[in-house]
Design brief:
The protein has one domain. Helices cover 78% and strands 0% of the residues. The chain contains four helices and no strands.
């Protein structure tokens, strides 16, 4: 689900929650960085930086490992969702092409069969 863009808080910074939701949205949407950034009204560099910070915070070790593990899991799931959406689109395109090919060949077969059987009678 697309996060709603809040007003910037003090220091011209977006809230942490918005940053995390935006990165998850970008990774799970399967869309390009530019499209998502334009959709959210932020610069592509902001999204890229937020993603790096989220990934580095999950990689670093600290005493609060449980929240970071959850964050790492969410990022991995968001990436996987994006990848699966792209694969689904590709498979859907392939299926549609095959459907069209089948209909074309079945129409050709019907036309050839009709002309041959008409001449035999």
């Amino acid at each position: 689900m697309k996060p709603t863009r809040p007003f910037k808080s003090k220091g011209n910074a977006y809230p942490t929650e918005f940053r995390e939701e935006s990165v998850r949205y970008w990774l799970s949407s399967g869309q390009s960085l530019k499209n998502v950034a334009a959709d959210l009204g932020v610069s592509p560099e902001c999204l890229r930086t937020w993603r790096r910070r989220m990934e580095s915070s999950t990689d670093s070790t600290s005493t609060s490992a449980a929240p970071q593990a959850g964050n790492a899991t969410e990022l991995a799931q968001a990436r996987e969702i994006g990848q699966l959406k792209k694969e689904l689109e590709a498979m859907t395109r392939q299926r549609d092409i095959l459907k069209k090919a089948i209909s074309i060949f079945s129409d050709d077969k019907n036309l050839n069969g009709a002309s041959n059987s008409g001449g035999l009678k």
